[in-house]
Specification:
The protein is of the alpha+beta class. The chain has helices at about 1-20, 65-80, 135-150, and strands at about 30-35, 35, 45-50, 60, 85-90, 95-100, 105-115, 120-125. A hairpin with a 6-residue loop joins strand 6 (about 95-100) and strand 7.
Length: about 150
């Protein structure tokens, strides 16, 4: 009986370490530099509206009205999504983390609001691994659908 308990405890510890380890460390390249979000790495687990290559490119969100109104609508969308958490929030930049349900993988999603062009640039990237099975692209398209449904 004691051997079974030890094996069970050992298994629980190993699974816990795996799950905790899947969150990764917050990247240091997040944020904006000279009005741009970070470039996507060569791996396919990132999409960006500021990327020019087909593998990583997505369309930005467009808005009319004020930047403050667009910012508030964007915040509301992000806060309504499962397992999302806003980390950084300024007038022109929002960084949110999305955590997967089972393995607790964390993706960083960034938005840069450009008042002069009425565009919200977006970048969504996995912290770990190479392939994300299209999760980041699907998330951005989900946000786009919610954006359109909100009349933005």
């Amino acid at each position: 009986m004691e051997a079974v308990s030890e094996r069970l405890l050992s298994s629980i510890v190993m699974v816990s370490m795996l799950v905790i380890g899947c969150t990764g460390v917050r990247p240091v390249n997040l944020g904006t530099k000279e009005g741009k979000l970070a470039l996507c790495p060569s791996s396919p687990n990132c999409v960006s509206s500021q990327s020019s290559d087909h593998e990583h490119a997505v369309e930005p969100l467009l808005f009319s009205g004020t930047t403050a109104g667009a910012h508030e609508a964007l915040r509301n969308i992000l806060l309504s999504m499962k397992r999302s958490r806003i980390i950084t929030d300024t007038d022109s930049y929002v960084h949110a983390e999305f955590t997967s349900a089972i393995f607790r993988f964390v993706d960083d999603v960034e938005f840069l609001l450009d008042e002069s062009t009425k565009v919200i640039h977006v970048r969504s990237a996995s912290r770990l691994g190479k392939s994300d099975l299209g999760v980041n692209r699907k998330r951005v398209e989900d946000i786009r659908a919610r954006w359109k449904a909100a009349g933005k």
